[in-house]
Amino acid sequence: MNWEPDTEARFKTAISRLPIFHRRIAESAVSRRAEESAQAGKCPRVEEQDVVAAFFSDVPSPFYSMMIRLLDQAGFNYKKYGYPKNK
What we know:
This protein has a two-stranded parallel sheet with strand order 1-2. The termini are far apart. By secondary structure, it is mainly alpha-helical. It is 63% helix and 5% strand. Helix 1 crosses helix 4 and helix 2 crosses helix 3 (48-58). It has one domain (2-81). It has 4 helices and 2 strands; from the N terminus they run βααβαα.
């Protein structure tokens, strides 16, 4: 599936800042979930909201604060989509 170029670049930036032993797993899980989200929304490509939703749905709670920091550093505007949601 195609990705919006800026979103893909920021996603790669965020993944590259993860500890090496987490990168491949996170990249696979989050990209798969983002593509599923885009397809479910009948979007022709993965966009920022798909990646944000994927990160928030698939990151285990012990890594939550690191994920927030990485998303901020990569320039994702997760607050625009209502994240983090109160549990």
